[in-house]
Amino acid sequence: MLLEARDRIGGRAYTIDHGGTGLDLGCGYLHSGDINPWTGIAERLGFEILRKAPPWAEDSRHYGARLNLEIDEAWDGFYERLEELEDARLHGDAPDLPCSAAFEAGNRFNEMLNALSGFINGAPWSAVSMIDHARYVDTNENWRVRAGYGRLIHTFGKDLPVQLSTVVQTVRHDGEFLRIDTARGTIDAKKLIVTIPATLLAANALRFAPDLPDKRAAAANLPLGHVTKLFLRMPKLACDLLPEETHVLGRCDNARTGSYLMRLHGSNIAECFFPSDLALDIERGGMVAAADYAMCELGAIYGTRLSQGFEPIAMHGWNADPFSRGGYSYATPGNADDRAILAAPIEDRIYFAGEATSREAFSTAHGAYASGVIAARACLDALRC
Fold this sequence. Notes:
Layout: E1 2-3, E2 15-18, E3 21-24, H1 37-44, E4 49-50, H2 65-90, H3 110-121, H4 130-135, E5 144-145, H5 149-157, E6 162-163, E7 168-172, E8 178-182, E9 185-189, E10 192-194, H6 198-202, E11 207-209, H7 213-220, E12 227-233, H8 236-241, E13 246-249, E14 259-262, E15 269-275, H9 276-285, H10 287-302, H11 304-307, E16 311-317, H12 338-343, E17 350-352, H13 365-384
Parallel strand pairs: 1-6, 7-11, 10-17
Antiparallel strand pairs: 2-3, 4-5, 7-8, 8-9, 12-15, 12-16, 13-14, 14-15
Pathway: Plant hormone metabolism; auxin biosynthesis
Pfam family, one: Amino_oxidase
Organism: Roseiterribacter gracilis
């Protein structure tokens, strides 16, 4: 039985329909699509996969040729230094550092690099463990599910025995059976797989009796970064003048900027993605204020005539979501190994899964899936003994 706190399945995979276009308010890309298990699942279920480079991989730069070249040089230089520092930590005994140690002092694009970290991690590079970042496996194949990643995951799980709107409050593991206290009553079980986000474990939103302080400490070192997604309906003029799936970054001199994908799947919809502290402010301000912010940044790029008349459709701030309290996990400096601590089973009765427990695919839906398979196999093996 699956106990689901929300009134839907899928968690941070969440697609809504708008006029026949799937809008992913949560995860949207089959990262490492060529090795991603969801790719095969999507094909078996008849979902169309868009096997092409994502729009943000071919950024439509609007800063001018000279500035564009300087931005590319800053990004390439940062990653070269980062990989060199990471190699010394993965294959030597150098201590972990924040990824910001790879910054070039005084580089005027360091704030832009922090904006990019906001999209990747939900936090600035100064908050992110170098060792954890280096362990992530990426084939650089980032594909999409046309109907929506969230819809794929929902379809995959729709026939499972699920109790929706069932918040688990306490897990008691001091008796012969596990006693799982929920808002709808108590369930006895032999085994349990816990998949709630690290933020909720760290906050003791799910209580264990006896307590599991090591789990809470590890979860606290694997926070979920802040991200907010907003979708806007574009006016006809903008649709007529902009090519399909044009992508732009709002600014190159500030970490507080949005990522904008215009004409999603050739439609009249713009997808806006806000990172880190900006995501929190956008979330607090509400959808209308968020749309104004986006139009202001787009107006600076395309001119006010082209950027007027955008209408908000939907927004989801994951930090305010009570069942996630953030977007996706990163490890803080010095704490990369806490993913293994979080994943370790308790008494061969309580198992842990979710993207935060994945060593090589954290922050992704396929990392969550793979960790769930590992936990389920271990659970079944224990039941057979």
